Amino acid sequence: MGLQRRAVLTLKKTATPTAPAGVPDLPDRAAVPAHTAETPDSAERGALLAAAFPALLAFYDRERRHLPWREEPTPYRVWVSEIMLQQTRVEAVKPYFERFMRALPDVYALAACPPDTLHKLWEGLGYYSRVRNLQRAAELVVRDYGGELPRDPKTLLTLPGIGSYTAGAIAAFAYGVPAPAVDGNVLRVLARFFADGRNILDPRVKTDFETTVADALSRGTPRPGDVGQALIELGATVCTPANPACEKCPWHDACRARQDGCTSTLPCREKKTTRREESRTVLLLSFGGRYLIRRRPDRGLLASLYEFPSLDGFRTEEEIRAYLIARGLTPLSVAPAADYPHVFTHLVWHLHGVFVDVAEAFDLPEETPLALGGNTPPTPAPGGDCLLLTPARIRDVYPLPSAFAPLTAAILTRKGDKPC
Ligand code: ADE
Q: Binning pLDDT at 50, 70 and 90, where does residue 12 land?
């Protein structure tokens, strides 16, 4: 165990460890909580990581699973296995991999394979675009690279279906190139090792971790491929998403998340949700104190639930009056009720609710189904999707989705309506 390894091990003993000569120091951990700690730059982290490789390799030599693509890691076998493993568990992949290798033992056989046979070999693994890309890439390898997969990760990246992880995996596992192979499991391991609270779903964070691993590998580790495999192994068998087995971890002492007691909250995975925004004008149409509600379509957002009718966009009083008059109604007054946003998973509604009193007051039993035609007032009709109800009945019998809760509250508390 070298000096750098000891530097990592001493981290938990002092808040500001003094690093041995040549080993970069960490920021003052007492001053900044782990999750927000400014991460040292990639070179510093590369040094820390490189110092932890010997223990990682010892763990790999001792504990690794013996998997077919690891035992004979030719570029072709590594490539096919990594593509299969992208969305499928190791145990499920094994028999598919063995059969695929028997049927198509090299890149020439893959390039020449009839599509139906190829699909049969892949059947059950799903995500068929993977195998289509695999064959297109095989054709290019035959045509442009003499049937030999390139060893340079940048060149590999130009082939269909090969992203930065797969390019790094082929280069490192098969050719021993010191290239980073950082997938989701490896990101988890590294985020914990450095107690890095950044969002690992952010591509910039992934790139930064790749730079760190590249830096660590460039420091002269003798087995770059095995380091990559060992990181995967650690993530799959020890540093698992839930309940990591820290007591079995070769980085038990060096891992900052374990030292800081934050393994369960790392890594941070924040999905960026881009929500569509819509504005709507919601009509609280009062027919003599009874309000019109309408059932939504059977499919889509809030399917089959009742709502107040609405118009797209924010409408002026004139537009609202014109809309109602065109439907044979006589608007008496239009007054603001409530304005608020309602946030769905993929959508934000900006709602502008208005009270609209109309002159028509249908003398119908409650719950008479009404149809709201394109240019007719609500008309009783069997199977009609509208109802005229008192606010209390809406509250008690036809509760509207929470998107409309402030408007239901507005009609319930509105002065001047008949007591409910
Ligand atoms: N998952 C992705 N790549 C893997 C590999 N090479 N070994 C085990 N599991 C993996």
A: very low
With beta carbons less than 8 A apart as the criterion, state whether 132 and 104 touch: no
d(CA 141, CA 170) in angstroms, rounded, equals 14
Q: What is the mean pLDDT of residues 260-266?
A: 96
Tens digits of per-residue pLDDT, 328-340?
899 999 999 999 9
CA-derived radius of gyration, the chain: 32
Q: Which amino acid belongs to residue 52?
A: A
Q: How far is the CA of 251 from the centre of ligand 1 (A)?
A: 20
Catalytic residue annotation:
82
Say which residues have a Cβ less than 8 Å from residue 9's Cβ, sequence separation at least 6.
253, 254
**DSSP letter (8 states) at residue 267:** S
Q: What is the mean pLDDT of residues 118-125?
A: 92
How does pLDDT run across 125-174, given as a tens digit for each residue?
988 889 999 999 999 999 999 999 999 999 999 999 999 999 999 999 99
Q: Whose CA is nearest to atom 1 of ligand 1?
A: 85
**Beta bridge mates, 347:** 276
State pTM to two decimals. 0.64
Give the Å distance between the CA of 144 and the centre of ligand 1.
28
Q: How far is the CA of 371 from the centre of ligand 1 (A)?
A: 60
Dig out the tokens for 19 from the structure.
Answer: 């690093």
Does residue 184's CB lie within 6 angstroms of at least one atom of ligand 1? no
∠ CA 316-355-294, rounded to 5°: 100
User: For residue 94, what are its two tokens?
Assistant: 């094994």
Which of 70, 78, 85 is the best mutation target for the ligand 1 pocket, counting ligand atoms within 8 Å of the beta carbon and taking the most?
85
